[in-house]
Amino acid sequence: MNKLIAAAALAACVFSGAAAAGPTPAPPNAYAYIGYPNDGQVVPAGKPFKVWFGLRYMGVAPRGVKYPNTGHHHLLIDTDLPPMDQEIPSDRNHLHYGAGETETLLELPPGKHTLQLLMGDDKHIPHNPPVYSKKITVIVK
């Protein structure tokens, strides 16, 4: 009876389109982090500030390059993580660094903002398991 229930649950997930993450594997211990600025840091308004991307136990490769245990950064600004089984959006809240960049200059309007990194594979889809940083807050004054 338990096998029947497990099979039904699996079928429900498959047919509902639910998926935990994309098809590209990532090392289970990989993680991304924002090296700068720090959580809660005040950054100056009216001029760009540096955001430094960190990554452990994976490598960085440009979009379109399919190599094991690599991906490229996406910076999420003032938004939550997107669906993990779909291409990461490209808009003012989801910035793509498909050339393999590991830092950027960012200018934000005054106020409180959140930043978070999410790794994408060669097709901008999160890895399995997803590799992302904790969300930090910066204050632009």
UniProtKB/TrEMBL annotation:
Domain DUF4399: 51-141
Top-level taxon of the source organism: Bacteria
Matching Pfam families: DUF4399 (PF14347)
Signal sequence segment: 1-21
The entry's keywords: Signal
InterPro entries: DUF4399
Official protein name in the record: DUF4399 domain-containing protein
Originating organism: Caballeronia arationis
Taxonomic lineage of the native organism: Bacteria, Pseudomonadati, Pseudomonadota, Betaproteobacteria, Burkholderiales
